[in-house]
Amino acid sequence: MFPRSATSQEEQILEMALVQAKRDEYVTKLNERISMLKENVAESRRVQDLLCKERDHLREQNEILRKEAATLHRVEKFESKFREGINIEYLKNVLIKYVETQDHEGLIPVFYSVLEFNAEERRRLENVRVKMSSPWSKLSRGKLF
């Protein structure tokens, strides 16, 4: 019986050694996994810091662009009002010249330009001008003779 008992104890020791080895292997794998996860967390923090810096930079750029857009809008508005003022004065002078002289042919293109007529508006005005310059139109207005 004694030899059996020794063998039984040895088997138990071997079994416990196997259990301990498996546990040690499991703990080693867990420690490796923990180390890898810590590296992932550290990398994620680096990426997050870079993204935060990029976000802050983009916010600054957005603010700069917003201010530039507002400035550009004010400049365009000022230029438009300035141009309108000049065009109105110029238009008044052209209209007076149109009424005072017979140079209607030479002044019509000026009206096109100052009033920024599109192609359809130019065509309509040209049709009226042709009708008004026909001999029959002049006869009906009493200007032929």
Automatic annotation (TrEMBL):
Residues 81-128 form the GRIP domain. InterPro entries: GRIP_dom. It comes from the Eukaryota. It holds the Pfam family GRIP. Gene3D superfamilies: GRIP domain. Residues 27-75 form a coiled coil. Signal peptide: none annotated. Keywords: Coiled coil. This is GRIP domain-containing protein. It comes from Guillardia theta (strain CCMP2712). The lineage of its organism: Eukaryota, Cryptophyceae, Pyrenomonadales, Geminigeraceae, Guillardia.
